[in-house]
Design goal:
This protein is of the alpha/beta class. Helices cover 38% and strands 21% of the residues. Strand 2, helix 5 and strand 3 form a beta-alpha-beta unit. This is Methyltransferase domain-containing protein.
Length: 233
């Protein structure tokens, strides 16, 4: 049943993308504000499937220090706050198109780790202004519709990744391969992990891309070409 619902969902948003970037942006803003008229409309903070997906994503991250982390499409911040608990020394930012979702994400909760920063962004129309060591994009790209809009959003996401940083995509499997194809045509990114959970309630894939670190100043050309920036396992 969920596959049929997913297909209908994709068809709807593919049709919406025909109205152009500005019109699509207004509709998406309205759509997500409407969903967030009540708290946590998809149960992202409590659903067992979502918790399993969050845990799987974090488990697969290469072990390295992350100073600046971005969660794109953060909704009310369920995963963003989990990132704050997992990486208490990092500066963490969540972005979303819905002001209602962001208002709830910013609400202080006793016992939470240091609060992330939350700001409004439509990844379809603008890239983040800063660069990050670790960028997450989960369950978002299928809202963007036609290939030109997907290419634009993927370029904006890629631009947000600092040299040596990682981009993590989490989307339904095997649909995720369609989205990953956009990133695999971008020079300067290469895939380091693809993990598929085919037997879960809703199969999904976690795919990790890395932007190579910038060459170290002063190194000879042949050394620059082979130097390993010390990527963790």
């Amino acid at each position: 049943m969920h596959r049929l619902l997913d297909r209908a969902h994709r068809a709807l948003f593919a049709a919406l993308s025909l109205i152009g970037l500005r019109g699509q942006g207004r509709v998406l803003h309205w759509y997500f504000d409407w969903w967030h008229r009540r708290p946590d409309p998809w149960g992202l903070a409590v659903d067992d499937y979502e918790q399993f997906k969050y845990a799987t994503t974090l488990r697969l991250l290469p072990h390295r220090p992350y100073r600046r982390i971005l969660d794109v499409g953060c909704s009310e911040g369920a995963f963003t706050h989990r990132l704050a608990a997992a990486f208490p020394q990092a500066e963490i930012t969540g972005v979303d198109i819905s002001e209602r979702a962001l208002a709830r994400a910013r609400t202080p909760v006793q016992g939470r780790a240091a609060a992330p920063r939350f700001t409004r962004l439509n990844i379809l129309t603008a890239p983040p202004e800063e660069r990050f060591d670790l960028v997450f994009c989960a369950e978002l790209l299928y809202y963007l519709g036609r290939p030109p809009h997907l290419r634009r959003a993927c370029a904006h996401l890629t631009r947000a990744v600092a040299p040596g940083g990682l981009l993590v995509l989490v989307h339904p499997w095997p649909e995720s391969r369609r989205f990953c194809a956009y990133f695999e045509t971008v020079a300067g990114l290469h895939r380091v992990i693809e993990h598929v959970e085919p037997d879960s309630f809703r199969p999904f894939a976690v795919t990790v891309y890395e932007r190579p670190a910038a060459p170290r100043p002063g190194l000879p050309r042949d050394v620059r070409a082979t130097a390993d920036p010390g990527r963790g396992a």
